[in-house]
Predict the structure.
Amino acid sequence: MNEQKKADERQLSRRGFLQVSAAGVTSVAAGSLLSACAPLAPGTAPAVVKSEPVTIKVMSWWWVEKGSDVALRNLVKKFEKAYPEIKVEEVSFPSNIYEDAQYSQMAAGKLDADVMHTLEGTGIKLIEGGFLESLNDVGKKAGIWEYDAIKKIPPWFWSNRATFDDPPDDSGDLFVLMFNTAQDGLIYNMDIIDQAGAKLPETQDEAYELAKSLTDRPNQFGWANRHTVPEKVGFFRDMIPWLLGYGGVYAEGQQPKVDTEPMINTLAHWRRMYIDSFPQGSDAATFRRMIAEGKVALYTDNNALPPNFFNMNPDSEGFIRSAPLPWPNRRGASFPSYWAWPADSPPEKKEAARTFLEFWATPENFKEITWARKDPPMIPQANTPEYLASLPWMSGFATTDAVPWLFVMGDFKGHVEEFRTTVVEYASEVVVGTLSPEEGAQKAQKDLEILADRLFG
Amino acid sequence: MALPVAIYLAIVFAYPIGQEIYLSFTDARLLDRTPPAWVGLDNYRSLAGSGKFWLVIGNTLFYAVVANAAIIALALALALLLNRAFRGRKLARVITSLPWAFPEVAAVLVWSWMYNKDFGVMNVFVRWLPGVTENPSWLLDPKMAWFSIVLMTVWKIFPFFSLIILTALQLIDKELYAAAKIDGAGSFQLFRHITLPGIAPTLGIMTLLITIWGFRRFSIIYLLTGGGPGVRTATLVVFTYITAIRSLNVGLGGAMAIVGLIMSLVITVIYVFVTRRLGQAQI
């Protein structure tokens, strides 16, 4: 109750501030006009100057993502009602080209947003390029320091945290805010598993054997993950939990680690899954639709995916479930999305953007958007037994020992594109059998060592 | 009068090409805010010593030669067919030009579906062939991927080429054929001595153009295979994109682009040289 009151006070004070600012600007403008007109037309009525609403551009892939679009638009509707002097303009790119769009804008030197969604890899590039301004002040005023979620923002987005062990400290710069995260788990089709009388896998080998036994091409596939060059971003990403499961990473510090046993195991596993259970050559859009239609038994991905399946086929809510990742260490990746603001927004837009972010961060709104998107609760207010009971497909994801996915990149965090291109180039050859896993791993390692020399001297 | 043209050429051609040449001698990286450093011929040395780069050059030449040969052969055959009088000829001409009219990206996405190993319609046709018991890996096996790329390229490009040849065919004076027939010329002789010389200039310029277009054709290859598996179906322009834009290495990508430019120039020079020699021989 008190928190709601505080939130309301914050909203009111922000609204008050903007109204005072608008009135001040109007007075100054009207005064200037009056003094300019006075010598020419004494006694003439002053010109009426109306303050224009401030429009902020909010860039996100959520605008065009089913489910998220409604959640975000509802928040914006509520915001514009509370702050009629601020309008929100949508800037949208679908998630598969979102990073490309941001890279293009960075290359052009200007981001087309006052508030924007960003992913980890792009976020680092944005900070390195000097495109982002600290949000620490916004975070503090919005009260997000009171949430545990703050601890989940990885050290590379802070100016004063070098490792995960360093406690968050509000004396430095924090360049992003995080309102949701997703983490890996094993997604499975309960009906297929039950009909087969199968037990859920607990190791990589069990996963392979089960997937193979459940494959009956082209009617049913035991497993689906991305495995083609045109989907190299997803291919690289889908291998991460498996690599972590085998105890590996892509790089440690400045040293690529792709010729290691865990990476070779991952490549060999991808190869056998491709032969015996993947819908070969199918892209994510295709196999995800097949999952929603009940034609795929098992799949590793994050908790943001099931709501998409439910949007494609509401019946799938009855058979899509999650389980712990099928390897003993339960390690997987987390994929937070962040909100940031460009350093070069004009002050009045920045003030309006700040208001928007603070509005979002109030517990009531934070909870509403979490529930609307069916995200794992990140604040206590959203973490109710009723909410959790409404998500029977969520429990498996919670068992993952998750690390932010950029953790596997070592010091190559800011060079993911180049690293990824090399890994996928050879991994794709392993998958189709033109290279053995060992050959692919060694060739990739050699190329990546050249890259490391070039990048780090 | 020449000034606007000079300004246009300077803005649209000279500056971008000059900038590209400059970047190819630097270590420029996309999104890097530090100014690029001059590295001399390092990028070109790096390319010369890279097995992957030579594989890509081989891919580029293979694609240009095989796809173009198929396009020319099919386009010529179709043009000769459509040049004959038959009922429904106009409709046939419209239908055959449809592939050219389809937006390229949409067409590639449809073809990528047709090539899907599990669900693609191409599997139905290929399974009719004797001895084929499994669906081919249309886009994942390197050899099949090349076949798939070439097939789609030919389908997309040859109707346009065919229409151009048809236009040239219709410009040949019909009296020449009548006179030759009176002299007892057969079909092959008519083709060899009247048709072929009549369309030779058109064939020449179109061959040059489709060769150059072949070198820079991007969307068909990139959307079908992404240049993969590995870089086994990457041509120079796809590899340049991967290097310069996906890997952000603008310096090295610039060097590749310059190599591509030189290849196109060489072909143009050869074409000009050959046509001049042919022209002189005819005189």
